[in-house]
């Protein structure tokens, strides 16, 4: 393995995997803005159409944890080609879908292909680069991880305003076909294989655990925490997760190796990544609500707001990677998270006059801070793992990010809704107290007053949610001071497992 790493890394092969992962992750957020249009065309309700995103997310939640098994069991070329073929077939089917059921099936097929892309790309990069050059390599990987989801809403907003929603798939399809063809002729096998068998019970428990948690928390903002569908799936998810962990700890060859959390820098990086993911979703969810609902700005302009930040992150990711190789993760994470905390706190001061440009600049600065934090912290944690545990490390990292993102969304939307409701009652009571008892307001004035009260209450709810998010980010900042430069642990024999 050392001899492989001392050779020149296979940049052409990594570029192919990079394009495949970028297209797959871009596609995940591309459809969100098109959902209202699809509802009208296929005459389906909001609950049904939401399954185009929920279903995609659930398939990812089921297959990403299993990716550790796939990466160890199958050659990276055959695994990539299978994943890319599924994604391409799903994309073609979606662009031609005659009804909603076919479109939903197409999205699930797409998700089955895309789920393996990110863990596979990370594993190839960890295998291809020596530890002292991994930062620069994983910095490039950061482009896929954050830039693709960030430009998705902007791109889809523009397309939906000018073309059919099918264009979203028609644009992705040529890139998917090209990547598949390049993979057939150019990819080589790099990651080592082991003759292991899949434990079916582990896969079932994993599906129930992560699928239940993802669905439950993702539905909480819409259905409410008192819905049996929400707390029921979360309870199933928690029980299944406990059963999954206990089973994996008893197995010599687990599907998902939870024992890697004994490595302190990996465990710390996972904790920081979870906290960052929760904090990051505050701006991704709350700002569009503020921009579109309170300020009445179009969805396209709302998506455009995030584009400069995505570009900043794209430019900074490779630079941050090289700085990581030179200085380590701690100094970068401390500086980056200080920026994130400061900008998040600034978002607690939003009002009805805050300019679009101010929010865009704050977003860009916040993303700059994120670019100094996410990949260095994750790479430092993975660097401590023995080579054989890399598939488990990448699978757990990707899974935890998905679940913590869903938890962050549910938490912040709930905080915002509760604060909005209590503030609306307070403002309504104040307005009634100030009103002349003898005056009889006309219907139009009453409606206008109610709208103003709700907007002010929602603005207060958003600002309060950002305050909670700032304290969450502050927790990550405190944890960042404990980061140490990680070196690979010695390989352990199976008898020690």
Automatic annotation (TrEMBL):
<keyword id="KW-0813">Transport</keyword>
<feature type="transmembrane region" description="Helical">
    <location>
        <begin position="104"/>
        <end position="126"/>
    </location>
</feature>
<feature type="transmembrane region" description="Helical">
    <location>
        <begin position="198"/>
        <end position="218"/>
    </location>
</feature>
<keyword id="KW-1133">Transmembrane helix</keyword>
<keyword id="KW-0812">Transmembrane</keyword>
<dbReference type="InterPro" id="IPR011701">
    <property type="entry name" value="MFS"/>
</dbReference>
<keyword id="KW-1003">Cell membrane</keyword>
<feature type="transmembrane region" description="Helical">
    <location>
        <begin position="327"/>
        <end position="347"/>
    </location>
</feature>
<dbReference type="GO" id="GO:0005886">
    <property type="term" value="C:plasma membrane"/>
</dbReference>
<dbReference type="GO" id="GO:0022857">
    <property type="term" value="F:transmembrane transporter activity"/>
</dbReference>
<feature type="transmembrane region" description="Helical">
    <location>
        <begin position="166"/>
        <end position="186"/>
    </location>
</feature>
<dbReference type="InterPro" id="IPR004638">
    <property type="entry name" value="EmrB-like"/>
</dbReference>
<comment type="similarity">
    <text>Belongs to the major facilitator superfamily. EmrB family.</text>
</comment>
<dbReference type="InterPro" id="IPR020846">
    <property type="entry name" value="MFS_dom"/>
</dbReference>
<feature type="transmembrane region" description="Helical">
    <location>
        <begin position="138"/>
        <end position="160"/>
    </location>
</feature>
<feature type="transmembrane region" description="Helical">
    <location>
        <begin position="230"/>
        <end position="246"/>
    </location>
</feature>
<feature type="transmembrane region" description="Helical">
    <location>
        <begin position="78"/>
        <end position="98"/>
    </location>
</feature>
<feature type="transmembrane region" description="Helical">
    <location>
        <begin position="12"/>
        <end position="35"/>
    </location>
</feature>
<feature type="transmembrane region" description="Helical">
    <location>
        <begin position="266"/>
        <end position="291"/>
    </location>
</feature>
<feature type="domain" description="Major facilitator superfamily (MFS) profile">
    <location>
        <begin position="13"/>
        <end position="488"/>
    </location>
</feature>
<keyword id="KW-0472">Membrane</keyword>
<dbReference type="Pfam" id="PF07690">
    <property type="entry name" value="MFS_1"/>
</dbReference>
<feature type="transmembrane region" description="Helical">
    <location>
        <begin position="359"/>
        <end position="378"/>
    </location>
</feature>
<protein>
    <submittedName>
        <fullName>DHA2 family efflux MFS transporter permease subunit</fullName>
    </submittedName>
</protein>
<dbReference type="InterPro" id="IPR036259">
    <property type="entry name" value="MFS_trans_sf"/>
</dbReference>
<feature type="transmembrane region" description="Helical">
    <location>
        <begin position="297"/>
        <end position="315"/>
    </location>
</feature>
<feature type="transmembrane region" description="Helical">
    <location>
        <begin position="464"/>
        <end position="483"/>
    </location>
</feature>
<feature type="transmembrane region" description="Helical">
    <location>
        <begin position="55"/>
        <end position="71"/>
    </location>
</feature>
